[in-house]
Amino acid sequence: MTPNAPQPSPFRRLALWLLRLFGWRSVMVWPPEPKGVIMVYPHTSNWDFIVGMLFKIGNGLPANWIGKAEMFPAPFTGLLKWLGGIPIDRRRSKGFADALVDEFRRRDWMWVAIAPEGTRSHTDHLKSGFYQIAVAADVPVALAYIDYGTRTLGIDTYVRMTGDREADMAKIRAFYADKRGHRPELAGELRLRR
């Protein structure tokens, strides 16, 4: 069952107000299906997390997000998990994608956000976990963006991966072609490692 967008609450209104106060515009098209992967790109600044959380809260989107274990220090571990965080130990991440696919099969509703660059530094390829999970679980990918060029945060486009990596990545590259990170020179290249 796909929940509808929740009614505005004071907490949600505060989050959207803070975004507007800092000059951000929020665009949200509610997920068309109950399960999927949210690809967040580009990710070039620590500010991405803060404005991204305000977007998530402000739009009432019940989504989880993946972060490196170091992002979950005490005493903030509980709060970050309450906000939907799933810590991953990058040294021991083997099998993580399979576990997430199993979790998709068990749940009625599950959207999970992944920054496939895996870092705020420049990288010559994306980590392929988001792609593998979307194909294996047969769920759509929401193309989420934090565009500092237009000061817009959004999820307004959903695509289904076909398994043809080159064709799928060409669609993704076309979508993100005009989106700019806080530090554009650090944006990772939109290609998967062979």
Task: Walk me through the topology.
Blueprint: H1 10-21, E1 25-28, E2 35-41, H2 47-59, E3 64-68, H3 77-82, E4 85-88, H4 96-106, E5 110-114, H5 129-137, E6 141-147, E7 152-159, H6 165-176
Parallel strand pairs: 1-7, 2-5, 2-6, 3-4, 3-5
Antiparallel strand pairs: 6-7
Helix pairs in contact: 1-2, 4-5
For the structure shown, list the relevant keywords.
21% strand, 194 residues, single chain, Cobalt-precorrin-4 Transmethylase, domain 1
DSSP helical segment count: 6
CATH architecture: 3-Layer(aba) Sandwich
CATH class category label: Alpha Beta
> How many extended strands?
7
What is the domain tally?
Answer: 1
Summarize the amount of helix as a percent range: 25-40%
Strand order in space, largest sheet? 1-7-6-2-5-3-4
Task: Catalogue the unreliable spans.
Answer: none
Largest sheet: 7 strands, mixed
What general form does the structure show?
globular
Class inferred from helices and paired strands: alpha/beta
Question: What is the overall pLDDT average?
Answer: 86
Q: Taking Cα atoms only, what radius of gyration do you get, to the nearest Å?
A: 16 Å
